[in-house]
Every structure is written in structure tokens, then in C-alpha cells.
Amino acid sequence: MSRSPRRIAVIGAGVCGLSSAIRLRERGHAVRIVAQRRSPQTTSNRAGAVFTPFRVEGHAGAARWTEASHAVYRGLAGVAAGVGLARLREYFFTPLDERPWWTEFVEGYERLAPVPAPYVDGLAATVPRMDMTRYMPWLEAQFTERLAGTIEPRTVTTFDELLEEGCEIVVNCSGLGAAKLADDPAVMPMRGQVLHVANAWSWRECLVEEGRGSTTTYVFPFEDYVVLGGTYERHERVEQTDEATLAAIVARCQALLSRAGFGDVPDLDARRLRCWAGLRPARVQHGADEAIRLERVEHSPSRWVVHNYGHGRAGVTLSWGCAADVVRLVEEIG
Ligand SMILES: Cc1cc2nc3c(=O)[nH]c(=O)nc-3n(C[C@H](O)[C@H](O)[C@H](O)COP(=O)(O)OP(=O)(O)OC[C@H]3O[C@@H](n4cnc5c(N)ncnc54)[C@H](O)[C@@H]3O)c2cc1C
Hints:
CATH architecture: 3-Layer(aba) Sandwich
CATH superfamily: NAD(P)-binding Rossmann-like Domain
Number of helices: 7
Distance between the termini: 14 Å
Structural class: alpha/beta
CATH topology: Rossmann fold
Largest sheet: 9 strands, mixed
Helix content: 25-40%
Bound molecules: flavin-adenine dinucleotide
CATH class: Alpha Beta
Number of strands: 15
Oligomer: single chain
């Protein structure tokens, strides 16, 4: 490292906080994490999770963060616990205008034709797939064991409290917590409900149907379980599932599986493992739900806050690309 190491506190032990802390530690900085919740209690633990760049269309940084993250996940596939590559098929109710930008750098892209009714368009590609029940503990261990970092259980109420303890830079990866901490009214919860069922069919392919309103439909199989999702419930703050919503998710997934050629699966949720609700940290601006805030602010003389929050539906997808920008913003400080 060319510059002297910085004393840094990262707020948050979700996927964005851990990825940022790992990259900063790897550069030789003195980094500690302070977090209210850590794995397995964070929103990140409840994510699907499949590489989903289509959720952040239109954001200025999206293409760069997405491509950089993709390269990292590509390298972690088969190396990091829970990370692999899988074929994804996505079906749309409205025609695609053009080839999606992110398909330029993923492998195996093809436009699907014909597609089963009621869909009118579809695509397939090979994308990274993260089993968060295994990937989050692996990420934590990278920081605490490989890089000897510490995670302090604590609720932060102001940036000053960390800066007064002697750190020079606070990296704010507090997700929904940023609404209060950064006094940002654009931050709001978008609840997602999912079921995990035993993968009794040895499925490998991920299926997604274009989201409509507060619903989205996806089937993400992993080695031992299949994730059935989901919902986009804006402003819902209660971290709890409800049976009617779960039943509707199962019915939509059954229809998607049938249309995609998997036949009838009447016993789809016969072996439920877990039902989860997670509050995605959305940041809503100019019609976008993922108006991510990734910038450096001089908080007081020689003290800075680097914000990295508001990833909504795509925090797993973007985490490594955003972490690379966090490092750049830290190291640009003269
Ligand atoms: C059902 C569901 C499915 C999803 N599927 C996908 C997917 O397929 N692909 C994808 O890319 N994304 C997906 N997501 C979105 C993804 O989970 C989020 O974008 C991501 O987890 C955000 O990560 P984060 O680190 O910013 O926030 P979080 O995981 O919420 O972590 C925030 C951290 O900050 C801490 N914190 C907050 N406030 C304070 C405070 N005041 N003091 C101290 N600590 C604080 C918290 O305790 C926590 O440690 C999904 C989400 C859900 C719920």
C-alpha cells in the first residue's frame, strides 16, 4: 500500500459491510466492524441469492459495480462456501427492447424463443448463485479469521461517537439503519418473503418471472434446498411472514415451473425448511428503488464518512463492485 494505513470503523456486518471491510483490510488498513446484527440475523442472510443486475437498471454506477462484482463472484465460484454458477432463465410479460447490457459480460446468454404463454419474451444466461446460509458465514470468517478483524456488537447512534473514539473514517454500510444514522428519508424497507423447501428434485436451474407490483416470482435451487419467492412489499417494516402470502408464492412458483417445462409439482412446499421475511434496504429517488448512495463526505476536519447503502434488491449482486469503490474513496483522501 502506498499511503499510510487508515483507522476505519465499518458500520454493518451485512454483505456490503463485510465485503467493504475485507477489501479495506486486504489493503492494510486498521479496520473494525461495529454492527447491531451479524450473521445469521442480517437481511443479507435472507437473500435469494442470485446475481440480479436487472434490478438496478438506470443507475449511473450500476454497470461498473455489476461487472466488477461479477468478476469477483466468477473467481469465487467453487472456492468460497456457497458460491457457484448456474443457468438462469428469466421470462417477461413485456417485450425486451434490446439485449440487456449485463448480458455482454456473463456467459451463456441466449434469447429464448418461443416462450410459453403468458410470457412474451425470455432470456437465459449463466450467472453466479450464492447460498447465503453458507456464503455469509464464509464472508465473516474471511474478515475475522483470515484477516484477524473484529466485529463489535453495538448499535451506533451517531458517526461522531466512532470518530471521537479515534477512527479517521467511518464506512456506513448500515442498510436500513442509514435512514436514522445519515438522516436520509429516501431509505425505506421493501420486505421480501421467501420459503426454503427441500430440493427433493435435484433441480439446478434458476427461474425468474418479471416482477409485477408488489410480487415477484422465482425459484432458486441450491444443493440442499430451493428458495421460492417472493415479494416486493414497500414500506412494510414487520420482519414476519404471513401464511396467505406464502401460499400465493407457492402457487405462482408452481405455475412458473409448469410453464418452464418442469411439469406439475403439487407437493412443492410439502417439505418446508424455513419461511423468512427480510427488509431490503431500498433507497427511493427519481422512481428508482435502488438509488444507492456511495460517496465520501468530509464530516469534520480530517474526519470522513464514506456512505455505501441503499442497495435494495441487489446488494449481494453489487457488493464487491461497491466495496472496490469504497477502497478508492478511502485511498483518495490526501
Ligand atoms: C427475500 C430477499 C431476497 C433477496 N434476493 C436477492 C438476490 O437474489 N440478489 C441480490 O443481489 N440481492 C437480493 N436481496 C437484497 C439483499 O439482501 C440486500 O440488498 C443486501 O442484503 C443489503 O446488504 P447490506 O449489507 O446493505 O444490508 P444488511 O444486510 O441489512 O446489513 C446492514 C447491517 O448494518 C447494521 N446496522 C444497521 N443500523 C445500525 C446501527 N445504527 N448501528 C450498528 N449497526 C447497524 C445491521 O445490524 C447489519 O449488520 C434480497 C433480499 C431479500 C430480503
